[in-house]
Amino acid sequence: MTTTNFFSKIEEHLERKLPLVAYRKPKETIVNCITQNDDQLHLVRDFTESGFVFAPFSSKGEVVLIPSGDFFHLPDFDLDQVVFKGESTSTVPQMPSVKENYLQSVRKAIKEIDNDRFHKVVLSRSIEIEIGTSPIEWFKRLLKTYTNAFCYLWYHPQVGLWLGATPEILLSTINDRFTTMSLAGTQTFKGDLNPKWGHKEIDEQKLVTKFILEALKEKVGYLEEGNLETIKAGNLMHLRTKITGKLKDNLKEVLKALHPTPAVGGLPKEPAVRFIQEQENYNREFYTGYLGELNLRTSRQRSARTNNQENQAYRCITKKNNLFVNLRCMQLKDSKALIYVGGGITKNSVPEREWEETVAKSKTILSIL
């Protein structure tokens, strides 16, 4: 399939108001698309289903499924086809009241942390801007700009249209082996791939890692914690620790234990989420939820070098899950885009710096508009 045919097929599906998701996994060149030929809303019940899932931030919300059926892909998207200026041409309204409200929420969070209500909480905000370009064009720009992120365009007429480029894996599995990560701590990339990190970012990362290890220790086997490392995601740097193991419980229970992680909610989970609901004056919906491939099966031919004809005909069937936290994303509503950004608040937080962090994160999406 040519590039033109691939994106024309997506555009035709959007014009018919039918569900679809187009996406590319980190460091890959293949762009995949799963389409649905009616507007029925499919929901995940027990996570034995197969397809592409889209889950909200609220653990009580319904998880939407685009079933694996009509699947096609573009083997190698030519990034040179996308030409645009790297700086945003959209005007972001400068509203002092928005900044002050966010700073007040951060101050309240620090006070609650000092009072031992919780150890960390993630506070977010939304940015609303006028738009005009086709969402397919934005998707192409995400693909070009964020090659190390999970880039997607997701649509369902009963839910809405979302795009994003997220660096964070929630859970990746191959058969019964899994990988997850704790990703916390943020600073702007300034040319150094190994920058210095402050106590706030290091402590925040430790909290997230500890939570994941505790949440999974009774549900998985062979749990291993990797080394702390610094990664680059667009114009930002993060601290990351990979965690691996072997599934011994069902996938639904593992996801329930993980989501929402302290990287998007807080710690302890319940009081932090309650504080978020008290302080944020909007519904996150699918921002800081998760999305990705659920129980997709792939087959691989055994090596033809064997002399055994029966072995040559044997195919190895692999079941995979690739689920990502929905960060660095936007929702399209009519002629407007809602961009979502947030940051982790701990006892060492400085309110003004927390505001600046959300500004830096917003540039991931603003740079492609």
Give structural notes:
Residues 99-296, 319-361 form the Chorismate-utilising enzyme C-terminal domain. It contains 8 helices and 18 strands. The chain starts with a helix and ends with a helix. It has helices spanning 3-15, 96-114, 135-145, 199-216, 251-258, 269-279, 309-312, 351-366; strands at 20-24, 31-35, 42-43, 51-55, 64-67, 70-74, 120-130, 150-156, 160-166, 169-174, 177-188, 220-233, 236-247, 266-267, 290-301, 315-325, 329-333, 336-345. Mean pLDDT is 90; it is low at 86-90. It has one domain (3-79, 90-298, 317-366): Anthranilate synthase. It is globular. The protein is an alpha+beta fold and 369 residues long.
What descriptors fit this protein?
globular, 369 residues, alpha+beta, 9-stranded antiparallel β-sheet, 27% helix, Anthranilate synthase, 18 strands
What is the CATH-assigned architecture? 4-Layer Sandwich
CATH superfamily: Anthranilate synthase
Q: What low-confidence regions span 5 or more consecutive residues with pLDDT below 50?
A: 86-90
In whole angstroms, the N-to-C terminal distance is: 27 Å
